[in-house]
């Protein structure tokens, strides 16, 4: 035996639910979104039933309006209807204006995020907008005042954009056939290591998507295991399978390990405001060739190449400055170390030129292949030159050769060259 629920009693009879035209004139109401709206007091009467509408009219308005009859009554109705429709269009317009103001604030936040500007810049941008409006269309001031660009709003908008992109990526995950990853380890202004994970995916129609998939602070250690864990988490988040992973690219972080004294010296000068100001003042005082040292932003090749070059060029000034600061760096008068520094600066410059040829969205694989092939040939040529102490392509080494008597460290350079050859795939070798 089954128990059936007792049928719920219908509160409203369906047949009474149609708004009848004569109610308008009888009770000063109009239909709005399936309800009836009293034109006199703007109350809505939830139930579309003559009984309810009549009761509302009789209790609230009939004393005042029942003497209106005939033409007077229809005129009153028309006036009320017109004013309500004006009101409604005003509200719709206001809603659209708010929508436009929100859109402006969202797009400005997007621009700020793309340019890497601080969220607080939103306030400055708003002031600029207001200045422009004051001069050009002061009557529209209210519209522009509505745009919210406070630091909090901008931060929230950027967060919204970020999670929107993440969701888009997750939604697309099922379409993708293959993907590749690029890992970049970088340090932010507080010297915290950040692991950046870029993902490039291709679907069956050869549509390619590239996106920064995650950025995570690596606190404490940055071992291979830590990085692997980050990658694994990211794959889970985006619902990606290991067997679809075709390629992993990392930067050449380890190559910088021999130049640690450079990094720590640059950081000593650049990361402390007072030191940095004093250093710049000192450079302008001695009329140094360059006004400043670039900040060591990362273990990135391009950045480190520039830092090494400038460090080499300013080595004499840096030595004097550090001595004055009572923080001498004895390596700066060690000719063997200076040779290594000069060689590192030159080889990094050489690699940067090559590196740049491999970058860019429109670089085709065949162009990359050609670049790698010619790089190998150049590398062989340069190696034979360097090994016979000919520095035509190595300006820092050339400079140092004229300054010091100690010999070029051939063994050191030879090791670097053989390491470099290993990093370029064997298939390219000799071809
Ligand atoms: Zn009313």
Structure description:
It contains 16 helices and 7 strands. The protein is α+β, with helices and mostly antiparallel strands and 431 residues long. Among the domains are: 14-67, no CATH class; 176-250; 252-333, no CATH class; 355-431, no CATH class. A hairpin with a 5-residue loop joins β4 (176-187) and β5 (193-203). α4 (70-114) crosses α7 (151-172). The radius of gyration is 36 Å and the shape is elongated. The N and C termini lie far apart (86 Å). It binds zinc ion (ZN).
Features:
7 strands; alpha+beta; elongated; 3-stranded antiparallel beta sheet; disordered C terminus; 4-stranded mixed beta sheet; 16 helices; disordered N terminus; binds zinc ion; 431 residues
Which helices and strands, and how do they pair?
Elements: H1 21-27, E1 29-32, E2 35-38, E3 44-45, H2 50-60, H3 62-65, H4 70-114, H5 121-136, H6 141-145, H7 151-172, E4 176-187, E5 193-203, E6 208-218, H8 224-237, E7 245-250, H9 260-270, H10 273-285, H11 301-313, H12 315-324, H13 335-357, H14 365-387, H15 395-403, H16 410-423
Parallel strand pairs: 4-7
Antiparallel strand pairs: 1-2, 2-3, 4-5, 5-6
The protein binds zinc ion.
Residues 38, 40-41, 43, 56, 60-61 line the site of zinc ion.
The portion of residues forming beta strands comes to 5-15%
State the strand order across the main sheet.
6-5-4-7
What fraction, in percent, of the residue positions are helical? 55-70%
Shape: elongated
Main sheet summary: 4 strands, mixed
Radius of gyration: 36 Å
Encode the helix/strand succession as letters.
HEEEHHHHHHEEEHEHHHHHHHH
The total strand number stands at: 7
pLDDT < 50 stretches: 1-13, 253-257, 297-301, 426-431
């Amino acid at each position: 035996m089954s128990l059936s629920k007792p049928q719920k009693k219908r509160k409203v009879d369906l047949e009474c639910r149609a708004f009848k035209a004569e109610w308008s004139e009888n009770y000063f109401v109009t239909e709005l979104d399936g309800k009836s709206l009293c034109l006199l007091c703007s109350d809505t009467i939830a139930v579309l039933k003559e009984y309810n509408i009549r009761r509302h009219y009789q209790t609230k308005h009939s004393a005042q309006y029942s003497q209106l009859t005939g033409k007077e009554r229809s005129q009153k109705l028309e006036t009320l209807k017109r004013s309500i429709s004006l009101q409604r269009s005003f509200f719709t317009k206001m809603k659209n204006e708010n929508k436009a103001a929100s859109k402006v604030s969202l797009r400005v936040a997007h621009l700020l995020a793309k340019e890497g500007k601080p969220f607080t810049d939103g306030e400055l941008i708003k002031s600029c907008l207001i200045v422009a409006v004051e001069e050009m269309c002061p009557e529209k001031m209210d519209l522009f005042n509505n745009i919210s660009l406070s630091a909090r709003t901008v931060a929230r908008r950027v967060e919204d954009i970020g999670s929107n992109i993440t969701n888009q990526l997750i939604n697309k995950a099922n379409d993708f056939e293959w993907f590749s990853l690029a890992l970049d380890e970088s340090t932010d202004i507080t010297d915290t290591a950040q692991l950046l994970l870029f993902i490039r995916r291709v679907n069956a129609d050869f549509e390619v998507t590239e996106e920064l998939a995650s950025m995570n602070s690596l606190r404490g250690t940055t071992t291979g295991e830590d990085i692997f864990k980050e990658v694994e988490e990211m794959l889970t988040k985006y619902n990606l399978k290991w067997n679809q992973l075709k390629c992993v690219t990392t930067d050449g972080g380890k190559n910088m390990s021999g130049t640690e004294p450079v990094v720590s010296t640059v950081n000593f000068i650049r990361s402390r405001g007072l030191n940095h100001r004093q250093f710049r003042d000192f450079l302008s005082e001695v009329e140094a060739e360059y006004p400043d040292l670039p900040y060591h932003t990362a273990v990135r090749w391009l950045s480190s190449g520039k830092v090494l070059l400038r460090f080499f060029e300013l080595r004499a000034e840096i030595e004097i400055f550090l001595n004055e600061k009572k923080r001498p760096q004895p390596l700066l008068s060690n000719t063997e170390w200076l040779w290594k520094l000069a060689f590192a600066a030159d080889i990094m410059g050489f690699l940067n030129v090559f590196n740049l040829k491999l970058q860019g969205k429109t670089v085709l694989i065949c162009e990359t292949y050609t670049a790698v092939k010619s790089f190998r040939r150049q590398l062989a040529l340069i190696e034979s030159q360097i090994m016979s102490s000919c520095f035509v392509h190595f300006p820092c080494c050339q400079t140092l050769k004229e300054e010091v008597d100690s010999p070029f460290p051939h063994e050191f350079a030879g090791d670097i060259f053989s390491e470099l050859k290993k990093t370029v795939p064997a298939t390219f070798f000799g071809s």
